[in-house]
Amino acid sequence: MLVEENRICNSGKTDAPFFAWPWENFGNYKYLLYGPLIAKVLYSMAGEGNKEDTWCLHILILFVLRGLVHQLCSTYSNLLFLNRTRRLNQQGINFNQIDAEWHWDNFLILQAIVASFSYLCFPSLANLPIWDIRGTVCCLILHMGISEPLYYWMHRLLHSNILFPSYHWLHHSSKVPHPFTAGHATFLEHLLLCVIVGIPTLGTAFLGYGSISMMYSYVLGFDFLRCFGHTNVEVIPHSLFEAIPLLKYIIYTPTYHSLHHVDTRTNFCLFMPLYDLLWKTINANSWDLHKQICTKTNDRVPDFVFLAHVVDVMSAMHAPFVFRSFSSIPFGIKPFLFPMWPYTVLVMLIMWAKSKTFLFSFYNLRGRLHQTWVVPRFGFQYFLPFAAEGINNHIEDAILTADKIGVKVISLAALNKNEGLNGAVILKEIPQDVDEVFLTGATSKLGRAIALYLARRGVKVLMLTQSTERFIKVQKEASVDRQKFLVQVTKYQAAKNCKTWIIGKWMTPREQSWAPSRTHFHQFVVPPIIPFRRDCTYGKLAAMKLPEDVEGLGSCEYTMERGVVHACHAGGVVHLLEGWEHNEVGAINVDQIDVVWDAALRHGLKPLQI
Q1: Nearest CA to 255 among 295, 300, 302?
Q2: Which of 251, 253, 64 has the alpha carbon at shortest distance from 177?
Q3: Has residue 416 got a pLDDT over 60?
Q4: Alpha-carbon distance values, 529 to 540, 541, 566 (Å)
Q5: Helix (H) or strand (E) holding 251
Q6: Which of 135, 430, 534, 606 meets the CB 3.0–4.6 Å disulfide criterion with 209?
Q7: The pTM is what?
Q8: Distance CA 535, CA 69 (A)
Q9: Per-residue pLDDT tens for 72-108?
Q10: Direct distance between the N- and C-terminal alpha carbons of the chain, in angstroms, rounded to an integer
Q11: Fatty acid hydroxylase domain: which residues (predicted)?
């Protein structure tokens, strides 16, 4: 049965009655369904309606608060630096699962519609008092006595041979539990869940003990416990159950519910394992696994670490623990980011004062764990002279920590960077028929390697540098017959007829204006230059697509597309896959550029464009 359900999760039906949501094709326009409620609230506030219309406002407030509960639980679930040792399923959430759960909040719209009809059918619901302690007791009794057993048997029916392949497979298709997984189910299942929620809330109101506080507390508590069970992080200490043994049958844990996603024949309860005990469906490993998770450190040492930093205030919100869906697409400025900007600035200041390098994300590739650690500094801080020592200390501490715990490869990003594969990616983008390029940042570590490599190809390199001494030093590294291809220039005007510019130093719009029409700007400068010229084209920072067999990757690296990483990240991946033991520090070995490139292609990394 278990094997069969796993197979169904990969190829379940989608044409069953009430499987799809009525507004499935609306996209984000589905939120317009709240329009009538908003209009009624505005109408009432304008003094045209009556005060009993406040029920519309309560439904809208509950929608916002319920969304906030799910978002906060999602944030906690993705704070890897806090909870990595208590994670239950060690796999990462991939893009497919994120896309499948994108509209996890459909049920909030459904329940708002059901609540609206309830108020319209029973006007007395609009006159509930703010508080009634009897209602709280009554609500709990109805939940424990009716909703819990009813949900248990509904859940077991959904695992039957008829209903599972038609409906419930969708929920179990999410391989790694997450708070948004709680809402990922079919329209029919959430209609049934409306009944489960309605029995304690409406039942209490019809018995005459209803109150506004009871409605809020039950609905929000219900959502929290649903999210709690899907967080994939154990938070309840096992010592609590040892002190109060009865408690383990009163409230479930993330460990308890995670076992249901592993063994779908057990642990069917809503929140109370008591009903699994009564009908003999408790997983025998429930308490042993809970104790194991709580008492043992489950902290696997990564094989590879990519040491990054925050780019700017806006992109700081492009993180899985801020907005999971947003972080799964390439970063871009969105209107909803602006209200959060002041809070992000405050977080930046706190990070500057207190934070240490932290774990940001991870994925697996061919049995090896790859992690991204983030230095708690923003891009502009790298250009502040008084901040340099602190940044260097963070980088040094991260490298020493990685070495101490046994990390095999650590690769530095952007302004931290090790430039390994960057040169190869840029050089392979340059067409073979190009015979002249203009190079800025020409005597830098990467600029030098690019100049020497192109000179070997017989390409004339106009090297922009004010230092004749540094230019001559680079030129002498070329063979005698190739030195003529390296030419020093001191002004941008010298490249006014060259249509291939390689940018390794920040350029102003005025400096870009010297490029002829149809010039292509290749870049290895951080941050990238502003694309000022509409008659020219601009390349992105050097990057490569990870191999197809990468697992658990669910966030985009800054502006990169899904599955694409910066070349300095890809270089570290190649270093690990090749099993190289040398350190890629100091001057770039020009002879190794093609070696690294060929190794990257051999391991399945793909260039974005050639």
Answers
A1: 295
A2: 253
A3: no
A4: 10, 10, 16
A5: none
A6: 135
A7: 0.91
A8: 48
A9: 999 999 999 999 999 999 999 999 999 999 999 999 9
A10: 50
A11: 141-281
